[in-house]
Structure formats: C-alpha cells, structure tokens
Design goal:
By secondary structure, the chain is mostly helical. The protein is 55% helix and 0% strand. 24% of the residues are buried.
C-alpha cells in the first residue's frame, strides 16, 4: 500500500527514476507474495534480495533530498532531464500557500513550478519521511522473507519417503538377507 501511495506522488511530480524503481518494487512484492502462497522459496529469495536493493535506493533518495554529499535536490537527476518538474510535495506540501504565477509565465501543461510558501514541512523532509517509511517496511519484509525461506527449506528436509533419509524411520527394512528366506520348507 505504501509503495502504491509513493507511486502516485511520483507520477504527480513527474519523477521518472522513482516511478521506474517503484514499479519494479511493486512487481517484486507481488512475486514475493506469490512465492509465499505457492511455497516457492526462490521467489521469496528474489524478494529478499530486492528488499536490500530497495533499502539502498531509499537511502539514496534520503541523501538526495537532504543534500548529503554531492547530491542536490534541485538537480534533474530523478526526472532524467525530461521535464522541469520536481517533487509534488514542493508545490503541494502540508500547509503550503500557493503563489499564482503571472499569466504569461505559466508552463503549458498547467502545473505550477513555483514552490509553496510557508509550508509546515519542507518538501525534502516529506520525501525523506516517505523513504524512511519504505526502509522500515522493506526491513520488516526482509526479515519475514528470511524466516519464511528458512521454514520452507526445513519442511523440505524433514519430509520422509517411507524409509527415506530419516535416520530413525517408522518403517524399517532389514537390509541383511536372512537365511530363512532361502531355505526350502519341507513338509
């Protein structure tokens, strides 16, 4: 649910890199759920690996919006230089007052490119909070995926095919030939 919510806000802000990453995330989450329901540990391992990648992506997003290192939230890195738009939260954050642009200076698609004024929460912090929530959910999902894979693999190892790999089978076959089997019975 949180990934779908994030996808909506990325679409509203024309953030193409996060849109692609979130789409892949949604597909892998569905694959992981399918693996859990169908008892397919490989699909769950794919989800667990993706959860680690997803945490890394979200750490990058937090660093990007908080201007950590050489990253700058005003760059066009997340839009692939396809549009001048930034985060949807930049213009529509909680408590933001909208300044109307002059009639001749508005962009052709109708979306204002002016940041909101007097916002209760700056857009970089809103994006960082979204990413922190994604990290929390991904870490819980990773732990759960590791647990489910362990349970599924234990179940596979403990299955006994009548006298199979179990050291103390319920059905025991004597492997040494008995002399009684080869003696003929005389009446």
């Amino acid at each position: 649910v949180t990934a779908l919510e994030r996808q909506v806000f990325d679409f509203l802000g024309y953030q193409w890199a996060p849109i692609l990453a979130t789409f892949v995330h949604i597909v892998v989450v569905i694959l992981g759920l399918f693996g859990t329901v169908q008892y397919r540990p490989r699909y769950i391992v794919v989800y667990a690996v993706w959860a680690a990648v997803w945490v890394t992506w979200n750490v990058f997003i937090i660093c990007f919006y908080l201007d950590v290192g050489g990253l700058a939230k005003d760059s066009e890195l997340l839009t692939f230089n396809l549009s001048r738009h930034r985060s949807w939260w930049r213009e529509h954050g909680p408590g933001c007052l909208h300044e109307e642009a002059e009639a001749g200076l508005q962009p052709p698609d109708g979306q204002a490119l002016l940041p909101g004024v007097g916002c209760a929460l700056e857009h970089g912090y809103a994006e960082a909070l979204h990413s922190a929530l994604q990290i929390l959910v991904a870490l819980v999902g990773f732990v759960y995926a590791c647990y489910v894979v362990r349970v599924f693999t234990e179940e596979e190892d403990s299955f006994d095919f009548i006298g199979g790999f179990d050291p103390f089978p319920l059905y025991h076959v004597n492997e040494k030939p008995s002399n009684l089997l080869f003696k003929q019975v005389y009446l």
